[in-house]
Amino acid sequence: MAPLARTPISKNWVFRQTTTLNSSCASSWLPVAQFPTVAHIDLLHHKLIPDPYIDTNELDCLWVNDADFTYRTTFPSPSLPSNDSSRAELVFDGLDTIVSVFFNSEKILEGRDMHLSYRVDVTRLLKKEGEENELELRFSNAPAYAKSEMKRIGYKGNGTDVHFGGPERLFVRKAQYHWGWDWGPALNTSGPWKPIWLETFTERISQFLVRQSVSEDLSTAKIIINGTASSAQPSRTILLTVTNPNGSILLTEETPISSTGTFSTTLTVSNPELWYPFTYGSQPLYTISGALNKTSHTETRTLGLRRLQLLQHPLTSAPGTSFLFSINNISIFCGGSCWIPGDYLLPRMTPSRYSSWLKLAKSGNQCMIRVWGGGIVESDEFYRVCDEEGILVWQDFLFACGDYPAEEGFVELVKKEAEQQVERVGHHASLVIWVGNNEDYMLAEMWGWEYDIDDQEGPWDKTNFPARKIYERVLPEICERLAGDVPYWRSSPYGGTTSNDVTVGDTHIWSVWHGPMAPYQEYKAYTSRFVSEFGFESAPSIRTLHKAITNPRERHWQSLTFDAHDKGPSHQRRYGMYSGENFRFRFNPLRDFIYSTQFLQAEAMKYAYNHWRRAFGGPGAELCSGILVWQLNDIWPGTSWALVDSEMSLKPSFHITKRALAKVVVGVERLVTKKTPYMVTSYPPSKTRAAIWAVNGFTSSLPATLHLSAFDIETGSSIALPDDVRTRKVMLKPNQTTEIVEGVDIPDADTTVLYASLVADREQGEQLARWLDWPEPLKFVHFAKDVSVTTTLQPSSSSPSDSEVVLLKADRPLKGVVLSIPVSAGGEDAIWDDNFIDLVPGEEIRVGVRGLDGREGRIVTRWLCDWEGEEGFEL
Ligand code: BMA
């Protein structure tokens, strides 16, 4: 029997605008720039629009969002096996979004959902072998369709209760961020955004669902296979093979296919090599394949075997329940960040771009990435890399920040789309949770929709929160049926008596930065069982900002072009307020604004990450089992909550989170020893004692010694501490927090920086972790002005040849030392392994660096309030 053949329909594509917007721009056929594609990519390629990511070009590109485009190609017919049962099908992996598809002049498909793949039988329409076929995709713009759907179905919200974009976006199944978000422009694409194929076959596997279940004692793994095959001939079998991670065949089984085309079996692997997130182990991957009639069609899945649980047990010393992922019976602390789509023009995302982003996150010790519901269920490549690298994935379904409809036709689409997505990526070992939506329950509470949490029965279609049907019926049913061992969670955030209940489920902590703009020092008060979102804005690197803003006169934080690239609501107020509360800031020139806002973000992250990592506690006391910062990545050169900007420049916050998620962390918390006197204002409470703790991420105990020292911040002189606190032996408990010192007095606390160093009790006695603890607010602190900071280059012997080491030291305590190569030195900045470092006299810090290219003489160091040491500077 002839094997299934797949031909990509990727050549000879042309496109044109079929509306008359922007003086009928692109109204005649033009070749596409690439395939798959969207109109913005092709218009850019032909220089018919400016780059929407630069300056205020967003505005000049808005017409494209509302235009209609047609794509057309021709391709010759392949030979079909001369067999009555042979078929030809066109497979569309993804069409963005409202489209009528014509094949050899006959309409074969109406598409309404960007997230769906389509398959159409074209056997009857296919031309004879060698003759040309014509495929035409007529896209009409999604905003107009969305508006008409909104009118038809009826919007139950009030227009202000949709965060970002217009409410019409809720009525069309298209990536919601295409309407613009608070970190990116309004760029609403249309076109064939994923590959198109012609498949010819006589029989095929139409569903191949591979799920797993690992026994409690980890001794066996069951691989559960369910599927369907379309086959003209009865009494068929499918040959299933399990291949070991090392490539040898572990087992094979020939499973019968029923008369209705279904097959089902469970294969057992004894003593499986288990898959772990990279923070706890390795990533062996098995391959499972199914071959129909041995050769005609084969499907394969790569499978990491692991026991996955989401533990919600009562806590010993706190209300509520844990929200704790356990893999292979190990409690996993899920540190990481949220992922927004890598590009507006999604077909520009390549496997290597995905891989670089994910490996970057891993290099920052991040073991969980949340794929946010306002984007897409990512490309297969994304999850493949996560499987291979051992990064856990939290996956939202594709709803975000709005009151969605639950009209029958809409729900039908949602259902198909969710089934397809769960089938497509649901087998990945890295995928550990499916979540109903982003923030829709939170909005229901915030905006007072008719949401009665006690009404679990429904139906809810008469209320103004009808989408409960989707989140509480449709999606859980699909997950129950198709998701295997991966749990479903109703929303992010969700749990407890309100969606942001800190004692149950997950929370989004926006009381800092958004909302009441609480001080970041209060993050501790918002400790929850799992923080799936929180964040703090900062500017990107100077080179990235220069890219965004080409006019030198606009390169300051109060320009229109700057505002256009910082979509965060009322960002100017927030920068000013948070900076003013915390340190003597300077926002001009631009490099000072960048330093100051990056400083703020890094400090905020430090408070949050370190408190919450400490709150991982121990067995039965997991007050917080995960922290996902909003957001890992940026989509364009702009200012946002991202840890890494669009050009992949690491912000200081990236280094802070990397340190906070290291295997071993030591931390210091200053404790209030005297409140502000009664009726008196303006004076902060005294904090003259410090508690010291550590977290050990290894699964075995770790003997170590804590060394504590103290320095006067202005003079740099060492301050004597009692002997019993200067060194202390500790045994760090496995995979949990150890409280080391309940309280140590800090001499002259307001002018003293404490330095805690944790050293391994091993022969090499290497430093495991360090922490500098400063009095706050920093605005009251007097820093030295005549500081000497040195950087010396040392050729590295142990690192790869392109890596060098810079030795960094200072003669006074310094906060937030940032190393960089200035723009004036030419070229890109070097890539620093560590940055944003606090220093004390006498310590030399080794910083690995790549891309210095002989520019060591040009290294610039900056630190907090360095501008106060400038000649002529007076406060
Ligand atoms: C969260 C996210 C996003 C948003 C971010 C920053 O609520 O879910 O919608 O970009 O806040 O405001």
Automatic annotation (TrEMBL):
Reaction equations catalysed: Hydrolysis of terminal, non-reducing beta-D-mannose residues in beta-D-mannosides
GO MF annotation: an example: beta-mannosidase activity
EC number: 3.2.1.25
Enzyme class: hydrolase
All copies of domain Beta-mannosidase-like galactose-binding, residue ranges: 13-194
Any one biological process term the GO annotation gives: polysaccharide catabolic process
Domain Mannosidase Ig/CBM-like stretches: 689-779
Keywords, comma-separated and alphabetical: Carbohydrate metabolism, Glycosidase, Hydrolase, Polysaccharide degradation
Pathway annotation from the record: Glycan metabolism; N-glycan degradation
Glycoside hydrolase family 2 immunoglobulin-like beta-sandwich domain ranges (all copies): 204-306
Family to which this protein belongs: Belongs to the glycosyl hydrolase 2 family. Beta-mannosidase B subfamily.
The protein's name in its UniProt record: Beta-mannosidase B
Protein's organism: Cadophora malorum
